[in-house]
Amino acid sequence: MSRVRVHSFTISLDGFGAGPRQDLQNPLGVNGPELMDWFFHTRIWREMQGLDGGETGVDNRMAERGFENIGAWILGRNMFGPVRGPWPDDSWKGWWGDDPPYHVPTFVLTHHARPSLPMAGKTTFHFVTGGIEEALALARDAAPGKDVRIGGGVATLRQYLNARLIDELVLAVRPVLLGAGEPLFADLDLRALGYACAESVAGERATHVVIRRQ
Amino acid sequence: MSRVRVHSFTISLDGFGAGPRQDLQNPLGVNGPELMDWFFHTRIWREMQGLDGGETGVDNRMAERGFENIGAWILGRNMFGPVRGPWPDDSWKGWWGDDPPYHVPTFVLTHHARPSLPMAGKTTFHFVTGGIEEALALARDAAPGKDVRIGGGVATLRQYLNARLIDELVLAVRPVLLGAGEPLFADLDLRALGYACAESVAGERATHVVIRRQ
Questions:
Q1: Residue A14 and residue A181 in contact, taking contact as beta carbons nearer than 8 Å
Q2: Rounded to whole angstroms, how far apart are CA atoms A201 and A208?
Q3: In terms of CA atoms, which chain B residue is nearest residue A192?
Q4: B138, B139, B140, B146 alpha-carbon torsion, rounded to 10°
Q5: Mean pLDDT for each consecutive 10-residue tract of chain B (214 residues)?
Q6: What is the interface pTM, i.e. ipTM, of the complex?
Q7: Mean pLDDT, residues A2-8 taken together
Q8: Which residue among A173, A178, A209 sits closest to B191, beta carbon to beta carbon?
Q9: pLDDT of residue A140
Q10: Could you tell me if A18 and A26 are in contact, meaning their C-beta atoms sit under 8 angstroms apart?
Q11: CB of B189 within 8 Å of any CB in chain A?
Q12: Average pLDDT of A157-177?
């Protein structure tokens, strides 16, 4: 069966996976970009933006790992956009413009139904109202022979971890203090859930820790 | 004025500075020794136990930094021992035997008065009932021209951080999941308190992050 993987999910030293008060101006929450200030320097991130250059060290290699053998993605509603509650219309199409960086079927968790949304570059957003298990079943069906990557955000990861549905979680730990935001680990006993750290790799701007379900 | 420093204080990936249920058998709490499994491999730790050998890499160098120019220590009651409430007698003399690894005046925070306790190797334990500021004033007086090191544990660090009394906090982050225990950062907004990460150094078994008050 395909594996369920999380990659390049970044937390601050004090354990926040996003800053507070996410909105249209702050997709990662206030001060959230400080979390991702390792990814922005990598060659793979620059390629995704259509830019040349970028670094090719450990951080880049760890980011690249996250795109290997992925047949479908799952995103939480807040990772897809700042809209809350029922969709006012179909105008919001994600943070990423016409050609999102997924290029495979991408399932968005929401409480509010919406027609599927085909985008350029083979990304199609499907909106799933039946919860995390339904989204995972649909993603697996859409990814024969490949793995499913869960993008985030924090609330989505916590749900999947609590249900023990994630096989491998590769965190990037940034040496920054956010002080406030969305904590990944609070009241989530990953050890009791059967998870353990399998590997730790020092990157240029983050420490990458591989967590696996035992 | 002398600086107030914390060194080699270790947290798990999920943010715990000690395991749960500290007692005589578990000085670091249940699973707590997994936190310190970087320090136990260093030459300086082995020297402190009267043993030869040990590793001399980054982890050892970061541990050694913590002993340079220290004129006094401050310890929380739980770091001094498992006894709770009033001292039943004066028989408990710390976890460390007759010759503790401090070798300077060492101030123990407690709600229960007790006579000072001179030990071998120039360590004297003084018991302070007036709170963290009194302990710091006494430690500074006892350490002319040198710095004060706060050993821990979690509750003691949190009190001193909340009061903005720590100048430099060097954490060791271990890639282990404790799942439960004493969280260092919970509801402690170090960013709002004026702290920031200044440096991150990859060691052999831990990532060392230097946090400074701005």
A1: no
A2: 5
A3: B179
A4: 160
A5: 95 97 92 97 95 97 98 96 93 95 97 97 98 98 97 97 98 98 97 98 98 97
A6: 0.94
A7: 97
A8: A178
A9: 98
A10: no
A11: yes
A12: 98
**pLDDT value at residue A174:** 98
In a 3-state reduction of DSSP, which class is residue A199? strand
Return d(Cα B58, Cα B40) in angstroms, integer.
13
**What region, left, alpha or beta, does residue A15 occupy, with left being phi > 0 and alpha being psi -120 to 50 degrees?**
left
Give every CB contact of residue B58 below 8 A, 6+ residues apart in sequence: B201, B202, B203, B204, B208
- List CB contacts of B119: < 8 A, sequence separation 6 or more: B93, B94, B98, B99, B100, B125
Query: What is the structure's pLDDT at B1?
Result: 75
| Coil, strand or helix at B80 | helix
Measured between beta carbons, the chain B residues lying within 8 angstroms of A15 are 14-15, 185
Q: Is the peptide bond before A153 cis (omega within 30 degrees of 0)?
A: yes
Q: What is the rounded distance in angstroms from the CA atom of residue A157 to the CA atom of residue A9?
A: 10
Residue type, A128: V
- The reported pLDDT for the residue numbered A1 is 75
> For residue A63, is it left (φ>0), alpha (ψ between -120 and 50) or beta?
alpha
Sign of CA pseudo-dihedral A76, A81, A82, A86:
negative
- How is residue B20 written in tokens? 């749960």
pLDDT tens readout for residues B50-80: 999 999 999 999 999 999 999 999 999 999 9
Which phi and psi (to 5°) does residue A90 adopt? Answer: -100, 25
- Give the type of residue at B159: Q
CA distance A186 to chain B (A): 8
pTM of this prediction?
0.96
**Does residue A16 contact residue A182 with C-beta atoms inside 8 Å?**
yes
